Amino acid sequence: MTGAATYPSEAHVPVLRLGKVLLVTLQGDLYDSTAEQLRQDIGRTVSDSAVNGVVIDLSGVEIVDSFMGRVLSDVAAMTRLLAAQTVVAGMRPAVAITLVELGLTLPGLRTALNTEEALRLLGAEVSALPGDGRARRESP
Fold this sequence. Notes:
Pfam families: STAS. By secondary structure, this protein is of the alpha/beta class. 40% of the residues lie in helices and 21% in strands. It has four helices and six strands; from the N terminus they run E-E-H-E-H-E-H-E-H-E. A six-stranded mixed β-sheet has the order 1-2-3-4-5-6, with helices on both faces. 30% of the residues are buried.
């Protein structure tokens, strides 16, 4: 191999606002710089928009590493300090196994089977109504 690896310089993960919730859908692997930019984008948007929740859809992610696990944990801690909750949706079994094997417990992150359930969980929290029981919460 003669040349240095090149990475997309404009890689960006969109952060969409749906009412009082931000929706972030991750597709494929993220470079560390993209994950760091995502962390900053979420923090800025939560702060500027006064949202109550963040849904991070991992259904398009096949593998995670310790850095990505730390980014997810940092996002949950940051949003909690900004009075919002974070729910990770659509985690594949292989991703969950990898996180456990890496020893990452991801405190403060709630999980849901899919995006619809994550939105329902956040809606239930915001309105203080009981949830339907299908969403799960990670142990603190």
